[in-house]
Amino acid sequence: MTTDVAVAAPSEAAADAGEQIARAGGNAVDAAVAAALVTMVNEVGIVSPSSGGFVTVQPGDGSAPQTVDGWMDMPGRAAPAEALRTGTWDVDTAYGGGVTVTVGPGSVATHGSIAALGEAQGRWGRLPWAELVQPAIDVARSGFRLSAASRYYLEYVHASIFGWDPASHAVVHDPDGEITTAPIVVPDLAASLEVVAMEGPRAMHEGDLARAISADVLDRGGILGPDDLAAYRPVVRPALVARLGDWTFGTNPPPAVGGVCVAAMLRLLDGHPRAPLAELRWSEADVAHLVRVQRAVLSARLDRLEVTDDLAAEAALLLAEVDARGIAALESGSTAHVSATGSDGTACAVTVSSGYSSGMIAAGTGIYLNNCLGEQELNPRGLHGLAPGTRLLSNMAPTVGRHTDGTTLAIGSPGADRITTAIVQALAGFVNGGLGLQAAVNHPRVHVHRAGRPTEEVKVETEPSMYFGGVAATLRRPDGHLVAAADPRRDGAVRLVHHDR
């Protein structure tokens, strides 16, 4: 049985991979996995095979949505005490409104995104795993040019983060030390992906490839050991449910914080925007309500979700307060995403990230390593402050939806703390504002930066900016009609695959 598939991805190459797999008989999950694997090759500085991520799936049979957690674990099972809080240094950058990033070997966490992709594909996909990895191998072998998102980020950090490791410096710089404009072939990367294709997702955790990654991290002063990689497992959880009108959405549950924020914001939208957005502009009252919702939820995240010892319990309490008392309950004084839906009703949303990157390529592998221990805004307990094996926090919120009429949707975005606000605004425009899917994605956005803090700033998008995220969304209507929308703020691309019957 063939399935028509809609794909929205961050690049033409990733969208091509989704289309290739769909034409080969794959479903929405297969297509999304293949597209996400390509992003791990050609989105340099944003995502790599050393990444964490989440996959949220709405099964085509209408059963409850599920999320596969492949986010980062805290490593260091075998690390001596003297190795903790070493092997890193801080970089101050103006990227994302100003952020301090911790990089170096000691910032590398235990990756899990490929394990999550494998788990999702094994449960809900159709095609052999190796076939899904092949498009990424092809891109790695033939080469690629830096995407607009990669170049935008590298303009801030190409010397400070991507220049200290000789292998990394050679990849992203030309002979004059400027960001390269030539096609890039990362040495050894295609060979590493061939191992992943042949041996399966566990190759990133056990075997020669995994040992090469951990050995280089340990040799350079980090704490990611072979025991950390071998012990890693993806976790499948019921998605966190939020309802908006006739829609039921499933998003990323704890221990991530992104899905909780999306669920809370959706519950507090209170029907805004009130009127159809015929002129593609929210009213002043709608924008004011949206800012109030963002401020309340993002402040609660900073004050409650990021500091609690029991995130699941605190998230449940916060959502219960929202349901009982509305917005008054909360008021007091780098990433890639792929969405795919199929004519069989399956929807799949995949968000993956390597943080800001540690700046190093694991010797002999071609794999850029993450710096997720060094994302200071997601590590309130400090660089190595968690027990080994503990999942880190995440902003990610890959989301699927199902309407009472059977329509299904997949949506998500990159963008650090703008992930949740970008997703909610696109959904609000589509569900409440009467916009088409692409128009809802295109609509100007607002974001409350550093909500509830003395340095809070309400940022209003006056012209399209990558700062406000990069939403990718796909939709399947009850009659099987497919729609895909990619964000013009990034090099997004869409594909609609229809099979002759």
From TrEMBL:
Keywords associated with the record: Hydrolase, Transferase, Zymogen
What is the protein name stated in its UniProt record? Answer: Gamma-glutamyltransferase
InterPro entries attached to this UniProt entry? GGT_bact, GGT_ssub_C, Ntn_hydrolases_N
Any Pfam family from its record, for instance, is G_glu_transpept
**Organism encoding this protein:** Aeromicrobium alkaliterrae
Protein family per UniProt: Belongs to the gamma-glutamyltransferase family.
